[in-house]
Specification:
The protein has helices at about 60-70, 80-100, 115-125, 130-150, 155-160, 170-185, and strands at about 5-15, 15-20, 25-30, 40-50, 55-60. It is an alpha+beta fold.
């Protein structure tokens, strides 16, 4: 099974991208946004095999992949629904909805209230963010809130954030400065 791909985006297609690595192009359904042809990418892969198809689903972090796999374990949740939940809500949003036992927080396009209730029922208490991840999510939220307040879109912010190497020791102020410098170029 394919677990990780690193390569260049050959094409952006409906619901995903084609990543070329080692002379082979892989079509990957992706949770990342703001991707462009020619961008270098590293993505964790979930390989979904059915009778008549093999699909690759790509994630920006192991946490996203783990949440996706947990969601697939809930009866009635398929890969498309799980991908929509992860890409729309992110790790923090899914875990928060589960910790608060809030099925309304899991409703996204293609996932209704009954399915969301089933997810909460089956996964409550199974997923939680460790302290480092909680702090990382808080910093990310502060950065996005501040930059959106300055008029930047989430897509503009995403494009810059994925290009810079953020040191784990940086505070939100440090990240905002670096992102602003890159946004102004």
């Amino acid at each position: 099974m394919i677990g990780f791909l690193k390569g260049k985006i050959q094409s952006v297609v409906a619901n995903g991208i084609i990543i070329t690595t080692g002379g082979v192009g892989y079509r990957v359904e992706s949770s990342k946004t703001g991707l462009n042809e020619g961008d270098e990418i590293e993505t964790y892969i979930y390989t979904h095999v059915r009778e008549n198809e093999i699909k690759l689903f790509g994630f920006g972090s192991l946490e996203e992949l783990n949440i996706f796999e947990e969601l697939l374990g809930v009866s009635g949740v398929g890969p498309k629904s799980a991908m929509t939940i992860v890409s729309t809500l992110g790790v923090g949003g899914v875990v928060e909805a589960l910790e608060q036992q809030n099925p309304e927080g899991l409703k996204v396009s293609g996932v209704g209230l009954k399915t969301a209730q089933k997810i909460v029922l089956e996964l409550k208490g199974k997923l939680s963010l460790d302290d480092a991840s909680k702090l990382e999510m808080e910093v990310k939220n502060e950065v996005y809130t501040a930059l959106k307040g300055l008029g930047y879109t989430a897509q503009e912010i995403d494009e810059v954030v994925k290009k810079i190497n953020i040191d784990k020791s940086w505070r939100s102020e440090d990240i905002i400065k670096v992102v602003l410098q890159n946004l102004q170029k």
